[in-house]
């Protein structure tokens, strides 16, 4: 019987023999490779924490003890060890198991995560609650070294030092976030890593002192002050201990027994402790070890070759953005590009290679990225901040206060706008229209296809204030190639003229609106189709005109209804007392779980077919009311 098959519920791992631990680690890696190669998912990060997760499960008692994963995309082994092995068949698929911790899946998932640098703050909340309620569970947070570039982690560490109760932070150091870790923190950790010789020396000395009969323990205590002085002399970094947090490490993150011993010791101290472990991202799969960025989040792939099974035949929106940005950079040496640890994901890899002095990776620090861009713009540069929609929301105050309040020319290239699919609720880009539209001085565009993306980038380049371009994940639309009217500030584009119904569609929803029009055509209805293009300011003149000549005005967007384009359009139609009935189609007030984009659109009722059904129902109702 395979060792992994012995684990069917939480804490089953404690029944294993020590000799079975390395076998279990190997079986888990094989299991992850087999399943992720079929479903896709986060691979390299999970392969790197197999032994760490085993050690944590040997030490902790689930679900009583609390384990909080930073980001959470490395929790696959944790899910295996808590009895969810069979659910991996549908990992990240519609209705299946999430790729992130979810309390609704298991009581062993103590906190839902998806974004970086949050785990220490959350764990601190658990620790303070434990102190207030008088309970005695263990609290452990796992955070990667890349996540330490996020300011929230330091706000938490600053408060953690005052904690009276016990809490352990495991620093999983693989010198990577999604891309390689950058900045002063990375350099600081390099110095700590180099202290391994000191730690080995210290351990040997302590062992000998404690072995002295009778006086050993007292002697060890009495020389603590001298020991700390020696540590200051030999170790170049006292970063954590200077904050009042006990530091242990660095230790081998692939040595299960060593980690178990250190974790037990850390928990028994009953004070704030950081346990620093060194791991290899992608451990056990040569392709992932060599290319950890590529295998961070990977589509289904061939295990033997490491190559993705379905190659991309046509460019996606990220590719189009990347090529156009290089073209703009050739025109203007003041154009600079900024990413928050997502050079590959946002299409800035080629920019980094061609213009390294004009490329800035600030690490997982979206707030800094935006204010840094504001400083560059105020100094006369032209910054382009390339970021995923779900991550840009972390920098809301900086957009409002530092960019828009000063009306600075910063271009926000918002990738993964709208539904993103398998990553689920923490990554869906369905809020950006709402949180950007309410900010004065902000201009927002959403192109309908690849050609319009290039055109709106030219427009943004020539603009003189804050401007955001939102575009979706996936293959770039090539429809309407010949229908490309010039970009005019605040003006929409009529793609097809009709009567009775007018559909105002935002960005990639134009393609869904076209499907709705085709269905309505079969019913003898010829709608007018409008490419909104400018979400803010939107085309009030066209909306007023069509609102007076059409019986139904419909808006379609892949943003939440509250604060979205439809809400603004509906309010304006009401303000001018337009006679047309108004039908907004948007994501209703909810978080959207994982699944394919097509499945999620249908579920949410924002696909072409659903839109046509709603419009046809409203049309028949209008006719009956004549």
Describe this entry's structure for a reader.
The protein is of the alpha/beta class. Helices cover 40% and strands 14% of the residues. The protein has 24 helices and 17 strands. A seven-stranded mixed sheet has the order 7-6-8-9-11-10-15, with helices on both faces. Strands 1-2-3-5-4 form a five-stranded parallel sheet, sandwiched between helices. Helix 11 (256-268) links the parallel strand 4 and strand 5. The radius of gyration is 27 Å and the shape is globular. 49% of the residues are buried.
Which characteristics define this entry?
single chain, 626 residues, alpha/beta, seven-stranded mixed β-sheet, five-stranded parallel β-sheet, 24 helices, globular
Largest sheet: 7 strands, mixed
Number of strands: 17
Shape: globular
The percent range for helix content is 40-55%
Give the end-to-end Cα distance, rounded to a whole number of Å: 74 Å
Indicate the structural class: alpha/beta
Strand order, sheet with most strands? 7-6-8-9-11-10-15
Q: Hey, roughly how much beta strand do the residues contain? A: 5-15%
- Low-pLDDT segments: 223-237
Q: What's the mean pLDDT score?
A: 90
Described by its quaternary structure, the protein is single chain
| Alpha plus pi helix count | 24
How large, in whole angstroms, is the Cα Rg? Answer: 27 Å
Q: In short, what is this structure?
A:
With 626 residues, this protein is of the alpha/beta class.
């Amino acid at each position: 019987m395979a060792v992994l098959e012995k684990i069917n519920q939480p804490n089953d791992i404690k029944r294993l023999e020590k000799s079975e631990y390395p076998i279990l680690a190997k079986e888990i890696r094989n299991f992850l490779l087999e399943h992720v190669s079929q479903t896709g998912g986060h691979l390299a990060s999970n392969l790197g924490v197999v032994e760490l997760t085993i050690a944590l499960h040997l030490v902790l008692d689930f679900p009583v003890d609390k384990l909080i994963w930073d980001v959470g995309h490395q929790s696959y082994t944790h899910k295996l060890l808590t009895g969810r092995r069979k659910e991996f068949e549908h990992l990240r698929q519609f209705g299946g198991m999430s790729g992130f911790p979810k309390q609704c899946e298991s009581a062993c998932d103590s906190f839902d995560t998806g974004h970086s640098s949050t785990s220490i703050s959350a764990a601190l909340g658990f620790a303070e609650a434990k102190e207030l309620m008088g309970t005695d569970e263990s609290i452990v947070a796992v955070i990667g070294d890349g996540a330490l570039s996020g300011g929230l982690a330091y706000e938490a560490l600053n408060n953690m030092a005052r904690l009276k109760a016990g809490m352990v932070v495991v620093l999983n150091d693989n010198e990577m976030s999604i891309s390689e870790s950058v900045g002063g923190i990375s350099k600081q950790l390099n110095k700590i890593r180099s202290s391994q010789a000191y730690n080995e020396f210290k351990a040997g000395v302590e062992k000998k002192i404690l072995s002295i009969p009778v006086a050993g323990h007292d002697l060890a205590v009495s020389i603590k002050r001298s020991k700390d002085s020696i540590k200051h002399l030999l170790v170049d970094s006292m970063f954590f201990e200077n904050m009042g947090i006990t530091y242990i490490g660095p230790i081998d993150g692939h040595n299960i027994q060593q980690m178990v011993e250190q974790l037990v010791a850390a928990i028994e101290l009953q004070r704030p402790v950081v346990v620093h472990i060194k791991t290899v991202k992608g451990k056990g799969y040569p392709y992932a070890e060599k290319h950890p960025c590529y295998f961070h989040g990977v589509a289904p792939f061939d295990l033997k070759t490491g190559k993705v099974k379905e190659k991309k035949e046509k460019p996606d929106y990220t590719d189009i953005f990347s090529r156009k940005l290089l073209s703009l950079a050739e025109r203007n040496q003041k154009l600079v590009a900024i990413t928050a640890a997502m050079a590959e994901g946002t299409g800035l890899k080629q920019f980094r290679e061609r213009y390294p002095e004009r490329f800035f990776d600030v690490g997982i620090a979206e707030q800094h990225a935006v204010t840094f861009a504001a400083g560059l713009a105020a100094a006369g540069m032209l910054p382009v901040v390339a970021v995923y929609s779900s991550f840009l929301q972390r920098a809301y105050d900086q957009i409002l206060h530092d960019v828009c309040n000063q009306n600075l020319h910063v271009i926000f290239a918002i990738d993964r706008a709208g539904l993103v699919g398998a990553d689920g609720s923490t990554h869906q880009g369905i809020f950006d229209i709402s949180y950007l539209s309410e900010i004065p001085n902000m201009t927002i565009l959403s192109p309908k296809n690849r050609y319009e993306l290039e055109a709106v980038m030219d427009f943004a380049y020539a603009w003189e204030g804050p401007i955001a371009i939102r575009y979706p994940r996936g293959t770039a639309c090539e429809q309407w190639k010949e229908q490309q009217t010039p970009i005019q500030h605040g003006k929409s584009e009529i793609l097809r003229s009709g009567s009775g119904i007018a559909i105002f569609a935002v960005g990639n929803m134009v393609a869904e609106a076209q499907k709705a029009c085709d269905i309505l055509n079969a019913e003898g209805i010829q709608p007018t189709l409008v490419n909104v293009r400018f979400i803010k300011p939107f085309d009030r003149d066209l909306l007023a005109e069509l609102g007076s000549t059409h019986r139904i005005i419909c808006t379609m967007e892949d943003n939440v209804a509250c604060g979205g384009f439809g809400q603004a359009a509906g309010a304006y139609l009401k303000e001018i007392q337009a006679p047309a009935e108004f039908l907004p189609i948007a994501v209703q007030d909810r978080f959207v779980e994982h699944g394919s984009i097509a499945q999620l659109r249908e579920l949410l009722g924002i696909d072409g077919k659903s839109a046509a059904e709603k419009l046809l129902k409203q049309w028949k109702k209008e006719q009956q009311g004549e």
